[in-house]
């Protein structure tokens, strides 16, 4: 979770690096999902900013990803909140202007989106 330009994709790149994924990571803004199978576990990067109807998630088979053997990072998850699993981790990224323009505050918590 986070505003435009706060660093969600940069965070995702670091997350993928931690999974030993070496291919370039980019935001799937227009494709909705990018799949990475080469790492320690399958990694699925969603960007649902352009989802206009929740039925679009059915069309891509979201349940196979959400309830499969990999890990999903979902940018703009609040737009599909009604179909998210109950056991999610919510990562919020905010600019920390008190420390400077390039600083971010990252909060990780269990449960529902706010």
- CATH C-level class: Alpha Beta
Shape type: globular
Please state the structural category.
Answer: alpha+beta
Q: SSE string, helix = H, strand = E?
A: HEEHHEEE
GO cellular component, one term: cytoplasm
GO molecular function: ATP binding; metal ion binding
Organism: Anaeromicropila herbilytica
Keywords: ATP-binding, Cytoplasm, Magnesium, Metal-binding, Nucleotide-binding, tRNA processing
Jot down its keywords.
114 residues; three-stranded mixed beta sheet; two-stranded antiparallel ribbon
Explain this structure.
This protein is of the alpha+beta class. It has one domain (8-110): 3-Layer(aba) Sandwich (Rossmann fold), CATH 3.40.50.300. Helix content is 18%, strand content 25%. The protein has three helices and five strands, in the order H-E-E-H-H-E-E-E. It has helices at residues 8-18, 55-59, 62-66; strands at residues 33-36, 43-47, 71-75, 89-95, 104-110. The protein is globular, with a radius of gyration of 14 Å. It comes from Anaeromicropila herbilytica.
